[in-house]
Design goal:
By secondary structure, this protein is an alpha/beta fold. It contains four helices and 14 strands.
Length: 216
């Protein structure tokens, strides 16, 4: 049984694989309405699969976009609270996270939905599929999940852009975009290059299913 939102190609999709829920998270792009729709569509899918015995989150095609609506979708699985940090060259850190349907940056709400699902128990196993097309905000989403209990990553190394950029306006009217921050996960482990999977493999979905079966 597959649930798919047809309003935009850039929304989460899902299906049931045995007793587990498979959630495909593409990049989030578009205007504010499109991003809000992404977040709301994701929670609709999470609610639909609330009896799943495990989750498979597919980030292999997530090349970036806005991290904030994507974080709203992953938040109930990643958990409430601080999920990561951006750190500049002076080692100043600013936290990002999730709290009751809202993505949080430096203590402020960035995106929120009105009727979020409850946080999913950390006892529920989660397999995350990654690859070379997992990039930029897709890698930030991965970092947000890392450190969760009963989570394992499968696939290939990510693109290697788990960083944040700052736009500088120049006197001639042009703009310069520079990478200014690296990323840390909730346990303050640093990421500035490709993120390697815990289980390197070419058939990530099959390996993830094998692991999930070990939970009974």
């Amino acid at each position: 049984e597959a649930i798919q939102e047809q309003k935009s190609p850039q929304v989460p999709t899902s299906k049931r694989i045995h007793q587990w829920a498979y959630l495909h998270l593409p990049k989030s792009i578009g205007d504010e309405d499109a991003k809000q729709h992404y977040a709301e569509a994701g929670h609709h899918l999470l609610r639909h699969h609330d009896t799943a015995k495990g989750w498979i989150i597919d980030l292999r095609d997530n090349r970036g976009g806005s991290m904030w609506p994507m974080l709203v979708v992953c938040g109930p699985i990643a958990g409430d609270g601080t999920l990561g940090y951006f750190q500049n060259r002076h080692e100043k850190r600013v936290a990002w996270g999730y709290e009751k349907g809202a993505s949080i940056y430096d203590g402020d709400t960035v995106y929120a939905i009105a009727d979020p699902i409850p946080t999913i128990s950390p006892a529920i196993p989660v397999a995350v599929l990654i690859g070379e097309r997992t990039a930029s905000s897709g890698e930030i989403l991965l970092i947000s999940l890392l450190g969760r209990e009963n989570l394992r990553t499968f696939g290939q190394a990510t693109r290697g852009k788990p960083t944040a950029n700052t736009i500088f306006d120049l006197p001639d009217g042009t703009s310069l975009v520079l990478t200014t921050d690296v990323s840390l996960d909730r346990k303050k482990r640093l990421y500035e290059r490709s993120i390697l999977p815990e289980v390197p493999c070419t058939d990530a979905l099959t390996e993830a299913e094998t692991w999930l079966r070990s939970f009974g």
